Amino acid sequence: MRTFFLCALLAAAPSPPVSLKAGAAESGEEVSLTINGVGVPARVEAGIYLFGKLSVPSHPLRALLLRSTDGGAHWTEVLPAEEHSEVLFVRFVGCQGRALVGWSTEGPGQLTLFATSDCGATWKRRGRLPKAVWSEWPEQMDWKDGQRGTVWLTDANEENAPARAIATSDGGRTWSNLEQPPRVPPPEPPLEARGPTGVLWKVTPEERTIRVERQENGAPPEVRVLLPVSWRREGKKLVPAG
To answer: Positions of the region Disordered (predicted)?
Structure first.
């Protein structure tokens, strides 16, 4: 009877709002969650995205891409492990998605493009982006469809450096310089995004939590989830540090 009661209690317990793999985190290390941006694709079935990184005190641990398909109540990691890096941009055209990841340990490093064709359920490495100099870093990314995309890069070591544009017509497998590049798109608010129906999603970092809010037109904001900032390893997963 006691065993039955315990099983029923566990079954009734609410699932945690986010599931994070331990990856390369060491036992006893504090792991910090950082969100760089929020993405809301036009296709509802693609879900909602939070992107950024997990870090230990000495360096970024790995790039992080979280997906929610229940309106922001629960989040799941969907990106293959890319260590010492962070997700910089996420863009969707229909169910075709692209995530640009940059190595950010001890200065700007290699840039890797990830792609999805199933509305964000699974992601695969598409390839590396070429750099003119190693210190180049993405300023913006834009996609016309699942094949044609442009990334604007600037030299992080040069003040007021002009942007260099590279383009692909095969989904990110190969890239070429644009002699007459289009203007760099204006920057978007990094921690808020508006969905196709006008719903505003906003991320607010706080001392101990990261607040994710959803706001309908004319309505007060609704807190969908509070994500802990600090985590620790427990077995093969990360759990809130307390």
So the answer is: 168-199
C-alpha to C-alpha distances, 48 to 9, 148, 172, 191, 222, nearest whole angstrom: 30, 23, 23, 13, 15
| 93 bridge partner residues | 96
Token code pair at residue 241: 């540090």
Q: Is the separation of the CB atoms in 213 and 168 below 8 Å?
A: no
Distance of CA 206 to the CA centre of its chain: 18
Each residue of 137-186: pLDDT tens digit?
999 999 999 999 999 999 999 988 899 999 999 999 999 999 888 999 99
Q: State pLDDT tens for residues 42-74.
A: 999 999 999 999 999 999 999 999 999 999 999
Task: Output the six-digit token pair for 52.
Answer: 């950024």
173: in domain: no
How many structural domains is the chain composed of? 1
β-sheet bridge partners, residue 206: none
User: Do 79 and 114 contact (CB within 8 A), yes or no?
Assistant: yes
- Strand pairing partners for 232? 239
* Cβ atoms of 202 and 192 closer than 8 Å: yes
Q: What DSSP character marks residue 2?
A: H
Confidence (pLDDT) at 14: 55
Residue 149 CA to residue 39 CA, distance in Å, equals 17
3-state secondary structure of 119: coil
Q: Would 175 be classed as within a structural domain?
A: no
User: SS3 breakdown of the chain: % helix, strand, coil, rounded to 5?
Assistant: 5, 50, 45
Q: In terms of residue numbers, what domain contains 70? A: 16-125+190-240
